[in-house]
């Protein structure tokens, strides 16, 4: 799509399917996606977070694009230490 394998694909939960994620992974790409509640990993995370503090990584930090002086637009992610069932 972009002509090289070093890219970050950001998508909603529609990406969170075996075929789509494997397609990106097999070509050296990376992705950030919202995991649907129907995934086992979501249930495991919800139980784990009750007693643990993830090591959040800031991946986006910019001024508020809609309101000058408004709260900053920041995104944080946490990488699960175990692979998804798709690897």
Produce a short descriptive summary:
With 87 residues, the chain is of the alpha+beta class. The chain has one domain.
Any overview of this molecule?
- The protein has helices spanning 18-26, 40-48, and strands spanning 8-11, 30-33, 57-62, 73-77.
- The protein has one domain (8-77).
- By secondary structure, it is of the alpha+beta class.
- A two-stranded parallel ribbon has the order 1-2. The chain has a two-stranded antiparallel sheet with strand order 3-4.
- The relative contact order is 0.16.
- Helices cover 21% and strands 22% of the residues.
Furnish the topology, listing elements before pairings:
Blueprint: E1 8-11, H1 18-26, E2 30-33, H2 40-48, E3 57-62, E4 73-77
Parallel strand pairs: 1-2
Antiparallel strand pairs: 3-4
Measured by DSSP, the beta-strand proportion falls in: 15-25%
Structural class: alpha+beta
The number of distinct helices, counting runs of at least 4 residues, comes to: 2
Number of domains: 1
| Average pLDDT, all residues | 84
Tally of strands: 4
Low-confidence sequence ranges: none
**Distance between the first and last residues' Cα:** 22 Å
What percent of residues adopt helix (DSSP H or I)?
10-25%
Provide the gyration radius in Å: 15 Å
Largest sheet: 2 strands, parallel
Biggest sheet: strand arrangement: 1-2
Secondary-structure element pattern, one letter each: EHEHEE
Shape verdict: globular
